[in-house]
């Protein structure tokens, strides 16, 4: 782990519809006052309603998130890319061949694979949200409180 914060972090997953928007929302909530945070997917997607619901439970609004691909990023000068799916990891490594950027792979379960009743499916999204929160808190260990 590092003891300094990156200036810009990109979270990436397959469709920028669940895992990377959740991670983006969490890090923005914790450190958005100190770090530029964005997210992208390998393919086009649309933010998942269960992701919106799971994040809303902890006071983070994803309803205005607009999914985008790597090719649609406005800025590509990131210090750190955290990929959350194998497909995104390949794309991140490809993208960073010509730039000084760290890439970390946090293989994260895709909760949209869970079938069943609404509550069972929502529980899978909650687990991913909570796992991402724990990893973010471990990775970005500096004071997470806003500077007053």
Describe this structure in words.
36% of the residues lie in helices and 14% in strands. By secondary structure, the chain is an alpha/beta fold. The protein contains four helices and four strands. Strands 2-1-3-4 form a four-stranded parallel beta sheet, with helices on both faces. The longest helix has 22 residues, at 118-139.
Which key terms come to mind for this protein?
alpha/beta; globular; 148 residues; 4 strands; 14% strand; single chain; 4-stranded parallel sheet; 4 helices
Topology:
Elements: E1 8-13, H1 19-31, E2 36-41, H2 49-56, E3 80-83, H3 86-95, E4 102-105, H4 118-139
Question: Outline of this structure?
Answer:
The chain is 36% helix and 14% strand.
Integer average pLDDT: 92
Oligomer: single chain
Unreliable runs: none
Fraction in helix: 25-40%
Gyration radius (Cα, Å) is 15 Å
The largest sheet is: 4 strands, parallel
The first-to-last residue Cα distance is 26 Å
């Amino acid at each position: 782990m590092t003891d300094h914060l990156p200036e810009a972090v990109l979270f990436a997953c397959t469709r920028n519809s669940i895992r990377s928007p959740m991670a983006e929302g969490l890090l923005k909530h914790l450190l958005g006052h100190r770090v530029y945070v964005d997210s992208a997917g390998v393919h086009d997607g649309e933010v998942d309603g269960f992701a919106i619901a799971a994040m809303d439970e902890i006071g983070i609004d994803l309803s205005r998130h607009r999914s985008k691909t790597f090719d649609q990023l406005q800025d590509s000068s990131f210090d750190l890319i955290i990929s959350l799916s194998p497909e995104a990891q390949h794309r991140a490594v490809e993208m960073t061949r010509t730039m000084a950027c760290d890439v970390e792979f946090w293989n994260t379960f895709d909760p949209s694979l869970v079938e069943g009743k609404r509550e069972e499916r929502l529980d899978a999204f909650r687990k991913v949200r909570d796992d991402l929160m724990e990893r973010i808190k471990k990775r970005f260990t500096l004071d997470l409180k806003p500077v007053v």
